[in-house]
Amino acid sequence: MTGGVTVVRPVAGAMPADDAVLRSARNAFMVLLLLLLAISTYQFYTIGGLTRPVGIMWVAGAGSFYLSKWHYGRQDSDAAVAEQTEKD
Fold it and tell me: How far apart are CA 76 and CA 85, in angstroms?
């Protein structure tokens, strides 16, 4: 044994379980977004506007996107501050 250090290398093509879940969630969100876009486009061409439920879905989707972006951005900055504090 040389110093007790073990190097672990990732297997080619393998990904962490969390990464697979995140990719699946991102793909599902993209499908829902494209469906909402298709429904909205259809409504614009047929009735000249959006129905209330479709408008509410757009507002809820945009709101949740920006709230989660803000939340995770705040967590990242808090983690960076904590890491910097530990180094000092």
Answer: 14
pTM of the shown model: 0.58
Cα–Cα distance, 63 to 57 (Å, whole number)? 10
**Site of tokens 């000249």:** 48
For residue 69, the one-letter residue type is K
Contacts of 6 (CB under 8 A, 6+ apart): none
Encoding tokens for residue 55? 């408008």
Q: Which long-range contacts (CB under 8 A, 24 or more apart) does 40-43 make?
A: none
Q: Which tens digit of pLDDT belongs to each residue from 36-78? A: 999 999 999 999 999 999 999 999 988 888 888 888 887 777 6
CB 6 within 8 A of CB 20: no
Structure tokens at 53: 């439920």
In sequence order, the 6+-apart residues with CB closer than 8 A to the CB of 39 are 54
**Whole-angstrom distance, CA of residue 84 vs CA of residue 81:** 5
